[in-house]
Amino acid sequence: MELHERLSAKMTKFRPSLTLALKRLAEQRVRDGLPVFDFGLGETKGQLDPEIREAGERAFREEDTMYTDPAGLPDLRRAVLKWLNLEAHYTIDNVIISSGAKQSLFNTFLAICNPADCVLFDHAPWVSYQPLAVASYAFPVQVLPLVRKDDGMKVAPEDLKRNLLMRPHARLFLLNNPVNPTAQLYTPEEVEALLKICVEHRIYFVYDRLYWRLLFDGRAFANPRIDEETRPWVIQVDGLSKNFRRAGGLRIGWCIAPDDVAKAMVNVQSHYTSGPATPTQRTALAAISRPYTGGLRDELQAKRDLLLREAQDMPLTRIWPTPATFYSFWDVRACLGKKTPAGKLLQTSDDVSEYLCLDAGVITASGTGFMQDGYLRLSFATPDADIVKGMAAARKALGALK
Ligand code: PLP
Fold first, then answer.
1. pTM listed for this prediction
2. Which of 230, 259, 288 is the last residue of a domain?
3. Is there an atom of ligand 1 within 6 Å of 237 CB?
4. In a domain, 45, yes or no
């Protein structure tokens, strides 16, 4: 039987994960006793906060392991409103706790998209947006500028307007701020301009704010305007995975949505996961009920500065500024067309990423996963010693290209 007969047609649209392939290559290097500098992973290391861990341990000790409300623990939903400073605008009926921010995004697409509805993403959409949209039978479209500027990839209001004119079936515009992978940060004015267009066109403004606490140099996050006009159209997605140390595997995210959409999301979630595990909901409650200290942010800011120092004048590379997140975004288009010392022609950023891995042990995420060939994403949430040695190894490898 042919592949397309045994699997659904949409499966052919899912690209196998390149990070996984690189992980295998890196493991092989470790087995061979060669150094590996991991800038590939999108998560923070370090120690889980003892109070967060204790909350989970207590939940198990006290057998707090029965089903919760499918929308999540009421106390946690209340804490989310406080965490996001949204108590004046919503009640806990507008908050849905999910298994990671991913499930909140999936719930969003399932709740509001009809088959073939178009969902608009920014220039460099995070790797899972497209598969999640496709799995919901929606049609993903990247909002591209008419003229590609060289100073960034932010979506401008005129780009969004033009795309909406061309796509009458658009249901939503999804904005990730700050952006994974580019680390760009939209200002309050830029967010307001995009939100205004969505409201005028009666499409949802889905705001993925997963890295919103990791803003450097005293920058402020752009909270979207919530009032009578915007409230029916704004959906916010957030979670535990990035703003806390070692918390990605706890699998807790949340979503704040208008009344009718929130009801639909709870309905659908009640049929496929019944909400996340109760003990990890307890860990999330412990995490966000306390004032946020900013220690992780300060540590990451110092790592960003270290990486920029060590990567200064990196051959054939232009490094973008990093106002937020823990990603350094590298323009390596000057490497394309060059040959490695072994004579391999580098044609895509997948090739550059593979070369850095095999030759220097430097693991990066290729831009192709984010629809941006010619770029690399490096996560600097990694030990300082690895940043120093990894940048030296990358410099040597890129300097050897001919
Ligand atoms: N949105 C963005 C921009 C992300 O980078 C990620 C994870 O890397 C997610 C959503 C999914 O987060 P979670 O691990 O909480 O499901």
1. 0.96
2. 288
3. no
4. no
